[in-house]
Amino acid sequence: MTYATDRLHEEIAYVAYHFHWSMDEILDLEHHDRRRFTQEIASLVTRAETEG
Predict the structure, then answer these.
(1) Domain containing residue 35
(2) Is 20 left (phi over 0), alpha (psi -120 to 50) or beta?
(3) Domain tally for the chain?
C-alpha cells in the first residue's frame, strides 16, 4: 500500500510551515512519526485559537 502523494505533500507543508523544518528532515521521519507531529500541531493550533 502506498501513501497518497497529495496527503504526503499536505503533511510536509503543514510541518514545514509550523516547525520550519526542511523537506529532507520531514521525509526522514517514519510515517507514524510524521502523522503524530501533524496531529500534535493541529492540537496546538486548536488550543491557541480557543485560548486566544
Answers:
(1) 5-51
(2) left
(3) 1
